[in-house]
Write a structure and sequence with these properties.
By secondary structure, the chain is an alpha+beta fold. About 40% of the residues lie in helices and about 20% in strands. Helix 2 packs parallel to helix 6.
Length: about 220
């Protein structure tokens, strides 16, 4: 599209309820909102290991009207080692700029005041697919890797999980911050809420003891 045509197209863009729920989940996870030349504009950047290609392709299908070009492979060389990633970038837009204002302070992610009313089970599923992990396939416990958030925001996220979704949690510290840990019955309740939203290629993140439908052994 030519520049004028692109701007006209962008002026008609809107976020569906489903897209907003997914957007919230990925911002809590690995998604990054990047400010553009005009402070009011931001674009969403998604990048994962190439092993997560199916997940990025799923995201592309969900946000296809917001993305000009298909996901691309990216090759990075870090300390002499080749890393193959796969990602996409949306159009820059004021609607995304609004999310950037809510979720960022001085380039650091924060938990916005109104997250409680906006977050849904689909948001949790995307957050988990982005940034969740398991204790083991034999245990019900799951982690949400919240190390990029302040202790205060981690506590807010724990309160939301408990007061909106009935899921209690604890905090595990590692070298870079705090993880939210959902153990036992809480892990089971959490997985039951999100499992139907988890795409097939990401089901390895669900402990085998909690899967409603078993997949072939990895």
């Amino acid at each position: 599209m030519r520049s004028r045509a692109i701007e006209e197209y962008k002026s008609k863009l809107s976020l569906s309820d489903r897209q907003e729920e997914i957007l919230i989940g990925t911002i809590l996870g690995d998604g990054h909102l990047e400010k553009l030349y005009t402070p009011e504009l931001s674009r969403l950047k998604i990048e994962h290991s190439y092993k997560q290609k199916e997940y990025v392709d799923w995201f592309y299908q969900e946000f296809k009207n917001w993305i000009r070009t298909k996901p691309k492979q990216k090759i990075k060389k870090v300390w002499g080692k080749i890393h193959k990633n796969y990602g996409l970038t949306t159009y820059g837009h004021r609607l995304l700029g609004n999310f950037q204002k809510d979720f960022y302070r001085k380039k650091k992610k924060v938990v916005p005041d109104d997250l409680f009313k906006d977050i849904t089970a689909l948001s949790l599923a995307v957050w988990f697919m982005d940034d969740g992990s398991i204790k083991s396939n034999k245990h019900k416990g799951v982690f949400l890797n919240t190390q990029s958030f302040s202790k205060k925001d981690v506590k807010t996220l724990q309160d939301i999980l408990e007061n909106k979704f009935g899921v209690t949690s604890s905090v595990k510290k590692d070298g870079i911050g705090e993880q939210i840990y959902l153990g036992g019955n809480s892990g089971e309740r959490f997985i039951k809420m999100i499992e139907l939203f988890v795409i097939p290629s990401m089901r390895y993140k669900i402990p085998r003891v909690l899967r409603l439908t078993e997949l072939p052994k990895e």
